[in-house]
Specification:
The chain is mainly beta. The chain has no helices and eleven strands. The strands form two sheets. Strands 2, 4, 5, 6, 9, 10 and 11 form a seven-stranded mixed beta sheet that branches. A four-stranded antiparallel beta sheet has the order 1-3-8-7, with no helix packed on it. A hairpin with a 4-residue loop joins strand 7 and strand 8. It is globular and about 40 Å long. The mean pLDDT is about 95.
């Protein structure tokens, strides 16, 4: 499985961006897709995840501002980011977990920069 992330860019504080993660193949029916981010000098942390059944999970820092969704027919996940803050600046990585094997797949990151 290859993951292609897109949608990053430069935005002012308070603005919005939408990230897209497209998988190259049809995904196994039971899986999780998620977004992680890594700021310079920091570890990669989970931002949000969504199961194939639609259950979501968010980090406390993005709750009520970010929304994760997915379209299983297109093997695609989205991250709508609103009310962006400078501390949201990071490289965002798309992640897919095949729950049959526990295998993690990662896409190349997309840079999000929020200016103050």
């Amino acid at each position: 499985v290859q993951l292609q992330a897109s949608g990053g860019g430069l935005v002012q504080a308070g603005g919005s961006l939408r990230l897209t993660c497209a998988a190259s193949t049809r995904l196994f029916s039971i899986n999780v897709m998620g977004w992680y981010r890594q700021a310079p000098g920091k570890q990669r942390d989970l931002v949000a995840s969504i199961t194939s059944g639609g259950s979501t999970n968010y980090s406390d820092s993005v709750k009520d501002r970010f929304t994760i969704s997915r379209d299983n027919t297109k093997n695609t996940a989205y991250l709508q980011m609103n009310s962006l803050k400078p501390e949201d600046t990071a490289v965002y990585y798309c992640n897919h977990v095949d729950l049959r094997s526990g295998t993690h797949y990662w896409g190349k990151g997309t840079l999000v920069t929020v200016s103050s």
